[in-house]
Amino acid sequence: MSGYHVAVVGATGAVGTRMLKMVAESKLPIASVLPLASKHSEGKQVPFRDGTLTVHETTDDSFKGIDIALFSAGGSVSKRFAPAAVKAGAVVVDNTSAFRMEPDIPLVVPEVNSEALRHHHGIIANPNCSTIQMVTALEPIRKAFGLKQVVVSTYQAVSGAGQSAMNELFDETRAALDDKPLEPKILPTAGDKKHYPIAFNALPQIDVFEPDGYSHEEWKMIHETKKIMAGDMNSDAIKVTATCVRIPVPIAHSEEVYFEVADDNATADAIRATLAKAPGVVVQDDPSQQLYPQARNAVGSKEVFVGRIRADAENPRFFHMWDVSDNLLKGAAWNSMQIAETMDAMGLIQPK
């Protein structure tokens, strides 16, 4: 059968199952799909189109004949098996943080910097979910009006920490409503010493803290944005700072983005009109009708929804906007598949 042979590593996880869905819906010709996971998941069935596929254990030999390998099984798995996939002839799109800051590995959001794909050496990194939706909304503004600095505050869904974190939210919510004790084991991050309830709470920590007081999630947003939009993770062409907060929402991240443009004549109406024409962006912005993006309405959609666009009354050239996106789709599975589709359209890959 002609078409691409695709492997999905981490096929049983929250992102991996959605990667399979994106492959099923893809415009690319698909010859075969191979779901891969740990030995523990070998033999499980995962849905694909109108049927199911059998999960296989990931090994060095799993990638023979594979054209495209989509990875979302954790950084250690990517570091272990992505080189093997490349050696076997596959192009890897990795959804973990394993390769994002490597200078010779493109970090790509197709609406923003697809040209970076031309410089890949077998591995393309998918950015952090919160970075993806922000730069998708900011890039049209940067092109039209210039972009000098960004201050972002995120309100991130628990699914960003995996299926187990979503289960923790649901279990804690039920326990709180039944007036039972809460027993957090994962959030704010499994890698730190203390754990706090997420039910009816907001946690201003995502990932571990760096020595300067920023969380690693905040560090990622700052440096990934610079790499994607300015070509250098340490660039001073755009100033970026972030505060990242986990909130008790299952899916879809929300962000308040405060930004400065270079154009003295920029207006909120002009920014709104620019975003209305931007690929991958949907403007929902009518305060008179209480129309603005909401997390629960974004679930299942591939787009980034933008609203509450307004000028800062105190500071010229500064504006606010609110953006929302499904962190498991545009923030992960869809952006990964979109990279593969973009590479096909650019003639950078073809079926064997």
TrEMBL record:
<protein>
    <recommendedName>
        <fullName>Aspartate-semialdehyde dehydrogenase</fullName>
        <ecNumber>1.2.1.11</ecNumber>
    </recommendedName>
</protein>
<comment type="pathway">
    <text>Amino-acid biosynthesis; L-methionine biosynthesis via de novo pathway; L-homoserine from L-aspartate: step 2/3.</text>
</comment>
<dbReference type="InterPro" id="IPR005986">
    <property type="entry name" value="Asp_semialdehyde_DH_beta"/>
</dbReference>
<dbReference type="GO" id="GO:0009088">
    <property type="term" value="P:threonine biosynthetic process"/>
</dbReference>
<dbReference type="GO" id="GO:0019877">
    <property type="term" value="P:diaminopimelate biosynthetic process"/>
</dbReference>
<dbReference type="GO" id="GO:0050661">
    <property type="term" value="F:NADP binding"/>
</dbReference>
<dbReference type="Pfam" id="PF02774">
    <property type="entry name" value="Semialdhyde_dhC"/>
</dbReference>
<dbReference type="GO" id="GO:0009089">
    <property type="term" value="P:lysine biosynthetic process via diaminopimelate"/>
</dbReference>
<dbReference type="GO" id="GO:0046983">
    <property type="term" value="F:protein dimerization activity"/>
</dbReference>
<dbReference type="InterPro" id="IPR012080">
    <property type="entry name" value="Asp_semialdehyde_DH"/>
</dbReference>
<feature type="binding site">
    <location>
        <position position="327"/>
    </location>
    <ligand>
        <name>NADP(+)</name>
    </ligand>
</feature>
<dbReference type="GO" id="GO:0004073">
    <property type="term" value="F:aspartate-semialdehyde dehydrogenase activity"/>
</dbReference>
<feature type="binding site">
    <location>
        <position position="100"/>
    </location>
    <ligand>
        <name>phosphate</name>
    </ligand>
</feature>
<dbReference type="GO" id="GO:0051287">
    <property type="term" value="F:NAD binding"/>
</dbReference>
<keyword id="KW-0560">Oxidoreductase</keyword>
<keyword id="KW-0791">Threonine biosynthesis</keyword>
<dbReference type="GO" id="GO:0009097">
    <property type="term" value="P:isoleucine biosynthetic process"/>
</dbReference>
<keyword id="KW-0486">Methionine biosynthesis</keyword>
<keyword id="KW-0457">Lysine biosynthesis</keyword>
<feature type="binding site">
    <location>
        <position position="156"/>
    </location>
    <ligand>
        <name>substrate</name>
    </ligand>
</feature>
<dbReference type="InterPro" id="IPR036291">
    <property type="entry name" value="NAD(P)-bd_dom_sf"/>
</dbReference>
<feature type="binding site">
    <location>
        <position position="181"/>
    </location>
    <ligand>
        <name>NADP(+)</name>
    </ligand>
</feature>
<comment type="subunit">
    <text>Homodimer.</text>
</comment>
<feature type="binding site">
    <location>
        <begin position="12"/>
        <end position="15"/>
    </location>
    <ligand>
        <name>NADP(+)</name>
    </ligand>
</feature>
<feature type="binding site">
    <location>
        <position position="246"/>
    </location>
    <ligand>
        <name>substrate</name>
    </ligand>
</feature>
<keyword id="KW-0028">Amino-acid biosynthesis</keyword>
<dbReference type="InterPro" id="IPR012280">
    <property type="entry name" value="Semialdhyde_DH_dimer_dom"/>
</dbReference>
<feature type="binding site">
    <location>
        <begin position="159"/>
        <end position="160"/>
    </location>
    <ligand>
        <name>NADP(+)</name>
    </ligand>
</feature>
<dbReference type="Pfam" id="PF01118">
    <property type="entry name" value="Semialdhyde_dh"/>
</dbReference>
<comment type="function">
    <text>Catalyzes the NADPH-dependent formation of L-aspartate-semialdehyde (L-ASA) by the reductive dephosphorylation of L-aspartyl-4-phosphate.</text>
</comment>
<keyword id="KW-0521">NADP</keyword>
<feature type="domain" description="Semialdehyde dehydrogenase NAD-binding">
    <location>
        <begin position="5"/>
        <end position="120"/>
    </location>
</feature>
<dbReference type="GO" id="GO:0071266">
    <property type="term" value="P:'de novo' L-methionine biosynthetic process"/>
</dbReference>
<feature type="active site" description="Proton acceptor">
    <location>
        <position position="253"/>
    </location>
</feature>
<comment type="pathway">
    <text>Amino-acid biosynthesis; L-threonine biosynthesis; L-threonine from L-aspartate: step 2/5.</text>
</comment>
<feature type="active site" description="Acyl-thioester intermediate">
    <location>
        <position position="129"/>
    </location>
</feature>
<dbReference type="InterPro" id="IPR000534">
    <property type="entry name" value="Semialdehyde_DH_NAD-bd"/>
</dbReference>
<comment type="similarity">
    <text>Belongs to the aspartate-semialdehyde dehydrogenase family.</text>
</comment>
<keyword id="KW-0220">Diaminopimelate biosynthesis</keyword>
